[in-house]
Amino acid sequence: MEPGLSSSPHSPLYTSLLVAGPRIRPLTQIHARIVISTLHRNRSLLTKLLTLIISAGYPLYANRLLPSVPNPDAFLFDSIIRASSRSTLPLHSLHFYLLMLSSSLRPSNYTFTSLLKTCADLSASDLGRILHSHVLAAGFGLDRFVQTSLVVLYSKAGNLIIARKVFNRMPDKSVVVWNALISGYEQNGRAGEAIELFYLMRKKGIEPDDATLAILLSACSQVGDLALGKWLHEHYIQGKNLRLGLVLGSSLLNMYARCGQVAKAREIFDGLEEQNAVSWTAMIAGYGMHGFAEQAMELFERMQLYGPPPNLVTFVAVLSACAHGGMVQQGREAFDSMKFDYNFIPRAEHHVCMVDLYGRAGLLDEAMKFIRDQITGEPEAAVWTALLGACKMHKNFNRAAEIATKLLALEPENPSHHVLLSNIHALAGKMEKVEEIRDFMISRGWRKKTGYSLIEINNVPYMFRMGDTSNLKTVEIYRYLEELICRIREVGYEPMTDSVLHELEEEEREVALRFHSEKLAVAFGLLSTGAGSLIKVVKNLRICGDCHLAIKFISGVTGREIVVRDKHRFHHFRYGLCSCQDYW
Predict the structure, then answer these.
(1) Model-level pTM?
(2) Facing residues of 461 across strands?
(3) Higher per-residue pLDDT: 37 or 78
(4) Nearest Cα to 98, choosing from 119, 77, 83?
């Protein structure tokens, strides 16, 4: 035996492997030394070498080396499968798993946790389901580590029914598995269920960690649950003196921004010990969604001078703020800066923002020119949707019909495109076309999304739909709303009757304009709160033009501040004006 070449973990050769780490050049040199030594068939040494080669990103090299290992055991395969699952090429872990099975070796729970991690990271839910059957056949269906990996896999893949079934069967649930399922609900637009699961988690006596709080704050952002978001901030973050790191800090400021507290969001932002592009972008987006385009641009300019370099998401936030604020020149400059100053290649979302920027400003020809000159290949459907919306806004029905044809050719099975085209025909007075589209949608079983508005009074949520009569104060609400309509008519309000047609997907046409859910919620809020209290309403769809106009007047005659969050942005109504400057 060559001096110093013992197979002991404390030998110089093994130490050399530890020093080399996942770096391919020194590993090949050590491999050569092993080959010419008496340890060229030492299984433990070769196992360590294989895992480091895979970690270095060379699974094919490892695959060629594997046959030289004498009598490979399950530990070796577990090691290289785990290393593969954590590498930049995780799919190779499945290849090594098949080799393991062909060697008649029995997989362990560690084998499956690594393989399921690979499937979760690759969003390979079909492979994951096959592996799940292998898990059950191998007798690891009740292993808590494997069960946790299955919950993570199904949650990430959006298959929340199976994720919940596995979760419910687990007798011992760590925080990790609770976080996985809560995150799965939040990531798949089911924030309400994420919050319900958090309450169940607390009932079981499990306290949230930083990761849980970040997920929950994001869920609060989705549903506009300011009360819960503030409680999480005060009870856990401040109450337990938690450090506001980048992830938790960004989630907190984003929650306040999306729940209507943009000043509080800025306070959080300014107080962060660490800031990165995510936190800066969240604050810029917060200003933009509230209609504070100038503040968004001021912060962006400060970011360029003193902050971290902006990323592609930052420019989406900036361009969106410009689009909603009517800042066409600033939007052009930001788009050019993205390309020429930062060498970013614009993505579909940037193209959508630019088309929206021009379209909202009524520059439909410039929007078409941008599509021709700046977009290579066939534009995304979202680009044509933005332009179609602009045509509707500016009542350019001929061009709208042309664009709708392109859009329906791209996505003929998307119900929202048919609804949008129906609205355009309605505004143009082509009711026979409206009926054709309605009949077509009925034949496909497509239903219009029902609009509703939420308002919270003394921490109790109340929901209103068009013509709602479920509230105990229904008679009082309707009587007060009638009074409000009379008062605002006296100061210049005239109902926008085309809104009944315009909102075909949100409300039933035969129901009167004044009983839209937004108006009912606002009237209830005014009745239920004292002078000076903020009225905050959350709408699941876009606020209609007539409600927007009426609430502006209502804020003026009552002297109350009213905030409406629709599916696109916030509207701050104060003194008869709106923060969006009627540009949404």
Answers:
(1) 0.79
(2) 456
(3) 78
(4) 77
Residue 434 CA to residue 441 CA, distance in Å, equals: 11
Q: Are 47 and 69 a contacting pair, CB within 8 Å? A: yes
- The span from the CA of 98 to the CA of 104, in Å, is 10
The SS3 of residue 453 is strand
The residue assigned the tokens 């898990």 is: 135
* Whether residue 97 has pLDDT greater than 80: yes
DSSP state of 290: T
How far is it, in rounded angstroms, from Cα 73 to Cα 335? 57
- Quickly list DSSP for 519-548: HHHHHHHHHHS-TTPPEEEEESSPPPHHHH
Strand partners, 454: 463, 538
Structure tokens at 323: 């689009």
- Edge to edge, the sheet with strand 577-578 lists 460-465, 452-457, 535-539, 562-565, 570-574, 577-578
Q: Which residues contact 426 (CB under 8 A, 6 or more apart)?
A: 434, 498, 501, 502, 504
State how far the Cα of 207 lies from the Cα of 212, in Å rounded to an integer: 9
Mean pLDDT of all residues in 437-461: 85
Whole-number Å distance between alpha carbons of 32 and 110: 31
Inter-residue contact 284 to 296 (CB < 8 Å) = yes
Fold of the CATH domain 346-447: 1.25.40
Please compute Rg for the chain using Cα positions: 29
pLDDT tens digits, residue range 358-412? 999 999 999 999 999 999 988 999 999 999 989 988 889 889 888 988 888 888 8
CA atoms within 13 A on the CB side of 297: 21
How far, in Å, CA of 14 to CA of 16, rounded?
5
Residues 121 and 102: their CA atoms lie apart, in Å, by 25
- Domain boundaries of the chain, sorted by first residue: 1-106, 346-447, 452-578
Cα dihedral value 191, 195, 197, 199, nearest 10: -170
CA dihedral 104, 110, 113, 114 (to 10 degrees): -80
* Maximal C-alpha separation, the chain: 103
Output DSSP code: residue 515. Answer: G
Give the separation between CA 521 and CA 536, rounded to whole angstroms: 9
Helices (H), 103-156: 109-121, 125-137, 144-156
Of 48, 130, 52, which Cα lies nearest the Cα of 87? 52
Q: Checking phi first, is residue 538 left (phi over 0); if not, alpha (psi -120 to 50) or beta? A: beta
Which ranges constitute the DSSP H helices of 58-124?
59-65, 74-85, 92-102, 109-121
Strands, E, within 422-509: which ranges?
452-457, 460-465
Which residue is associated with the tokens 């699941």?
A: 540
Is the distance from CB of 124 to CB of 118 less than 8 angstroms?
yes
Token pair recorded at residue 385: 């949707």
Among 97-101, 425-429, 438-442, 446-450, name the most confident range: 97-101
